[in-house]
Amino acid sequence: MDRHSPLLQMFCLALVLGLGTVAPADSLQGVREQVRDKQPRPSAPKKEKHRHHHHDCDDDDGSDFWVSIVGPPVFWVTTSPWWVPASALGDDYSADGADFLSYPYQYDRGGWISLSGEPPPDFDGVGMWFSSEYGTDFSGLQRAGQRLRIDTGSRFGLDTEFNTWIEDIPAGHDTLFTGDANLVYRFAQSESWQWYSGLGMNWLSEDHFSEFGFNFTYGATFTPAKPFVFETTFDLGTLGDASLFHLHSTGGVVWKHLELFGGYDYLRIGNQDLHGPLIGARIWW
To answer: How many Å apart are CA 239 and CA 269, to the nearest integer?
Structure first.
C-alpha cells in the first residue's frame, strides 16, 4: 500500500467535511454580540471540602496505577496529529532543510519542495504564496479574503489572512473585518506533502471597535501530481468573549506561478456560522 494513502484519506475527509457544511449563515451583527458578550457569569458554587483521615496512601497508589495504564495511550492519541503524518512520510528530521521551487512542479519536479538531489537553480531558501479569493452564501453574505504564507528551510514560517465581510441588510450593507496571524512549524514534509501547525492571534475590527483572541492552526498542502494542488487548514481559538472554529479547504490547478482554485470556507464564532463556497487565485514565488 502507498504510504501516502492514509494521509490522502485524512486530507480528503477534511475537504469533504468542509464542502458538506450546509447550515444557514447567521449575521454579522450576531458575531458582534458574541465577541462583545461581557455579561458576568455566575460563579460556580463552592464545593465543601471533605477531609480524608484514612486510606490516603491507598488512594495515591490507585491513582498512580491508573495513570500508568491510561496515561501512555492518551498521550499517543493526543499527539497523533503530529507523529502520524511524520511517520507516514518517513520524516525523521534528519534532512538539513528544504529547497523551495518558485512554484509547484517547476523543472518537472514532484511538488513544491525538493529534499533530495541538486537544489533548484534559483533556490533562495524561502517559499511564499499569496492568494485572493471571493466567497458567498448566496443569501446576502459575501467575503473577500487575502492570505499570505511564508515557508523557510528551517521549517518555521508565517501564515496570515485578512477577510472583508459584507452583508445585505434592510438599511443597506453591514461590513466587518476579520483575520489571523500565526507562527507555524512544518512538522512533517515530503516533496508532495507539507504538514504544519502553529500558534498566533485572531482579530476582528470595524470603526472604533476591535477584538482579539488566541489561535491554534493546523493544516496541510498536498501536490499529488501536476498540475493539482490541495490545501486544508483548521483554526481553533477565541475571539473576544467567543470561541472560534475555522475550516478552509481548496483544490486547484497551477500553471507556472499562477494557481486557480475553488473550495469552501466555514467560520464559526460563538454560535454564529459564516460560510460558503469560494473561488480564487494564488501566486507562488
So the answer is: 7
Which grid cell is 162?
Answer: 485578512
Q: Is the peptide bond prior to 24 cis by the omega test (within 30 degrees of 0)?
A: no
Domains identified in the chain and CATH numbers:
5-20+86-284 (2.40.160.20)
Spatial contact of 136 and 277, defined as CB atoms under 8 Å apart: yes
Compute the half-sphere exposure of residue 194: CA atoms within 13 Å on the CB side of its CA. Answer: 30
Kindly report the pTM of this predicted structure. 0.81
Rounded to 5 degrees, φ, ψ at 5 are: -60, -40
Instruction: State the chain's mean pLDDT as an integer.
Output: 84
Highest mean pLDDT of the ranges 28-42, 57-71, 134-148: 134-148
Instruction: Please state whether the peptide bond connecting residue 227 to the residue before it is cis, i.e. omega within 30 degrees of 0.
Output: yes
Residues in the chain: 285
CA distance 114 to 118: 8
Q: Are strands 126-136 and 141-152 parallel, antiparallel or unpaired?
A: antiparallel
